[in-house]
Hints:
This protein has helices at 2-12, 28-34, 55-76, 89-95, 112-118, 150-153, 157-164, 183-190, 193-199, 211-217, 234-240, 255-258, 274-284, 296-309, 313-322, 329-342, and strands at 20-22, 39-41, 81-83, 101-105, 123-126, 141-143, 172-176, 201-205, 225-228, 243-246, 263-265, 288-290.
Amino acid sequence: MYPALTVSKTLSKSGHQLLWVGSEGGMEASLVERAGIPFEVIPAAGVHGVALAKLPGNIRRLVSGYQNAKKILAKFQPDVLLFTGGYVAIPMALAARGRKSLLFVPDIEPGLALKTLARFASIIAVSAEKSRKFFSNQKKVNVTGYPLRDELKNWDKASGLAFFKFDPAIPTILFQGGSSGARSINQALLGILDKLVEYYQVIHLTGNLDWETVSKQTAHLGSRYKAFNYLHEVGAALAVADLVVSRAGASCLGEYPYFSLPAILIPYPYAWRYQKVNADYLAERGAAVILDDAKLGQELLPTIELIFSEEGKLAEMSQAMAALRQTDAAEKIAALINGIVEA
Length: 343
């Protein structure tokens, strides 16, 4: 969603008329409307790996989504469509067959929905060169990098330290698990927080999932620990951190390189392997260390201590992460979209 928002804002600067078609519920509508982009909803649902009992209902939602998509296309008459994945894109792509479109693939490996969408796309944009091998038509593929939100770029180390009122002489670690949170990361951190704050400053983005529990168990900690269920100024946290501990969603391919931020990545174990592939990509290049979710409680603290204690380790990881930085991905994707329209 954030890559699409970033590209949309870039396009709007050129005077393009935009319409966002999204799914029902969740944070999507509020964030899109906050950006000033008109928003339409169509029903959609997954069919791959879905329990048989739910399959008929999901198919009906897809059919309804397809019919609604046709009505939206007939009314709006777009010159080009931008897809970034998700169930909602399938009925829209089917309804838009024959129209010009660009597909952005945020993760290294595309999931089933993105592989399906790739068949309809005029052009495919990817975050990294390694993604090329997953597509049969290489002529369609363009490596653009991951679009980075403008609000992240407004922060640097100094402004981040001022925002959190942190001491520049003490290392800072950021823990985050997405908007809803990552329970295993939260629980593992709670088990070692008392030890961590002796030597480090800690920013903890809990998500909404465990916010009340975390708040109660950390009330005794001092100014070296800052917890938020959601942080709009996440750029401040990324800028001030010396190390991040997180899942391995697609944003780690763009945000961490931009801030030269070494990472301990814990791929989400209960979904398609895309997070593991993202983590492997960064770890193979020396920019990250991977921990198994099941062993997090035992391995998190020793891994953090090793990274900070081994001479040159943190700097080497930071340099490796910085080497993957691509700062103009949104502009590249917008230029590709303009090229499709003009062709």
